[in-house]
Write a structure and sequence with these properties.
215 residues, Rossmann fold, 8 strands, globular, binds NADP nicotinamide-adenine-dinucleotide phosphate
């Protein structure tokens, strides 16, 4: 698949590299440092290139949005069309200094960030995923914890887009669990905040992962 990485930082850079390795065509975009993008694409191998924001979105079927919340809305409104794109968002209400969202309290939007993205881009199919893992786990040699694969929850309103995203999650070495409709992002984004706070307070950050046990 053709995948645009919008926000080629810790999360975007890491996931883009994994997808390029899994033979997807990846375009890294939206860094303030052109050299960083070129270096990233080079290190991701032959399946990776660099493009402007507009090029990356228009040339891709899947768009990963991996920017911090303050940069989100202006970035989205500067793109001419999001029509029919599958947007994966891992953006939560947290600010870069880990403030900005308290457990149980929604963002300033009063809805989840993922629903806000859907409002800005009504013709797109938005799927929330990857916000309850750490970039350090994405960047490590393997997602495995012994015999176990960490769980990535995803949610969205379009079944076929969710099926594609589930495959992309598994391509990265995680297991995927369908958490329901897009509005469930209100819970997942809050859980992401709780997960970060738990990891930091317990001093277990970053070498931990969440797994759903089943019997
Ligand atoms: N880090 C994690 O473990 C983790 C886990 C789950 C979810 N998330 C979510 O993923 C998102 C990205 O996190 P991250 O850790 O990948 O952050 P990051 O490393 O700072 O990456 C953000 C990217 O956005 C780019 N960007 C472009 N224009 C920007 C602007 N005007 N202002 C700010 N950034 C701009 C940055 O550019 P530069 O390259 O020039 O800095 C950078 O490449 C956040 O919403 C976070 O909540 C993070």
């Amino acid at each position: 698949m053709k995948i645009a990485i919008i926000g080629s930082g810790n999360m975007g850079g890491g996931l883009g590299k994994l997808w390029a390795k899994a033979n997807h065509q990846v375009i890294f975009s939206f860094s303030r440092d052109e050299n960083k993008l070129n270096h990233l694409a080079k290190s991701a191998g032959l399946n990776a290139t660099v493009g402007s924001l507009e090029e990356a979105v228009s040339q891709s079927e899947i768009i990963l949005i991996a920017v911090w919340l303050p940069a989100l809305e202006a970035m989205m409104r500067s793109v001419s069309s999001w029509e029919n794109k599958i947007i994966i968002t891992c953006v939560s209400g947290l600010q870069p200094d880990f403030t900005g969202e308290t457990i149980g309290i929604q963002t300033d939007f009063k809805i989840s960030v993922a629903e806000k993205i859907q409002q800005i881009a009504p013709g797109a199919k938005v799927v929330e995923a990857f916000n309850i893992t750490f970039a350090e786990i994405v960047a490590s040699n393997s997602r495995q914890f012994g015999e176990d694969k960490p769980t990535i929850f995803y949610c969205g309103d379009d079944a076929s887009s969710k099926a594609i995203v589930a495959h992309l999650i598994e391509d990265c070495g995680y297991s995927s669990v369908d958490a329901g409709e897009l509005k469930i992002a209100r819970t997942l984004e809050t859980l992401a905040t709780a997960w970060v706070q738990f990891a930091v307070s317990s001093q277990l950050f970053p070498n931990i992962a969440l797994k759903v046990l089943q019997r």
